[in-house]
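User: Structure please.
Assistant: Input sequence and predicted structure:
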Amino acid sequence: MDIHLTNVSKTYGRRRALDPVSLNAGHGVLGLLGPNGAGKTTLLRIMATVIAPTAGQVRLLGHDCALPAGRAAIRRRLGYVPQECGFPAGFTGFEYVDYVAILKEWADRRTRHDEVRRVLAVMGLTDVAGRRIRRLSGGMRRRLVIAQALLGDPALLVLDEPTVGLDPEQRLRFRDTVSGLAEGRSVVVSTHQTEDVVALCPRVVVLHEGGIRYDGSPSGLAAMADGRVWTAADRDPGAVLAWRSEGGGLRQIGVPPAGAEPVPPSLEDGYLLLVGGTGERQEVPA
């Protein structure tokens, strides 16, 4: 297992951002779902060694994050995409990724530049590598941040909302890239896009109000809404959520009325039912 979190929590003053969380993960893609304020970014910042937990133990890639030598060893094998990222003023795309490569101790200039060109090509940025970052679109900037995370073929990738700002084609290309990277390494992806989880992640963790509410397979999360999803012309009082479906009726989640015809649930249905209610943590084998 590359990721070992044991009773990890984080508080800021009197506010608890993350309840004691225990999580183990090995090779493959782990999807992290949760509403805004659930604690996802706090958890990923701890995994990326950006912040230290208030309590608990974090071991990544066999190293203890509490030790300076351990953090240094982890960072050499870590790729991180933060939710928000600033850029050095006046840099081109190539210069930015090259700068990150220098920080990652790529000393040989020729080897480093070959690696910078490789990751830029992976993210489809070769043609704009010489352009100033301030002149790049939001989607291109996001791809640039993903490119720097791929430097050095990292053993652990921590990706916080990596598809924000990407158009549908770019998101599909991102899925293709991550699917290829999942072999032989650990990838943690936080996202609001449930379709990305279905496409990429054999395991999904739902974080809500600082704690883990579900840990299992996407199909298991969808199954939590079995018998709780139906369609009707009008909203029913027992519906927790309802929205207009493609066929014109209202797709509803909650307690169906007598005689309602259940419809097959999706991962999104299970997720919405879970975070919209007060459900306890659920674990379903992947």
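The first strand starts at residue 3 and ends at 12.
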